[in-house]
Amino acid sequence: MNAGTPGSAVAAARDAASCVFCAQEEGAVWWRDAWLRVIEARDEPDYPGFCRLVWNAHVTEFSELSDGERAHLMRVLAAVERALRATLNPDKINIASLGNMVAHQHWHVIPRFADDPHFPAPVWAARRREPCARQHAARVAAAAGVGAAVRDALQRELG
């Protein structure tokens, strides 16, 4: 992996100590390898199946990854999306890499439904409606199988 700019080791160590993704898991780990992990986004209860791909090393920008690392991340991202689609049958999958608040390379993978609280706006926009309790409970139940589906999809994708 690209180490970043020269002389940044002290800054990287300081940033890693205060980074929520470096300091803790931030959710159930559905899958992990030497480069990244897929975690359940437990802080997003309105969105069962919402997960994050988190690069294990403290890297801020996608362009800091090597060609091979970027390719690996994209293969994992595509496999996670396929697993979410197969398990939850959402109307859409949103994929976002923002990192404005956490300077750590991570991707949000979010199953979206036309009746979810924010649709068609981003999940971070103002809420448009309250979720139907029955439909939400069914999605929570279906999402219980997402971790296994992600592991299976990544086993098929990566061997």
From TrEMBL:
A motif (Histidine triad motif) lies at residues 104-108. InterPro entries: HIT-like (IPR011146), HIT-like_sf (IPR036265). It comes from Mycetohabitans rhizoxinica. SUPFAM superfamilies: HIT-like. Pfam families: HIT. This is HIT family protein. Residues 45-119 form the HIT domain.
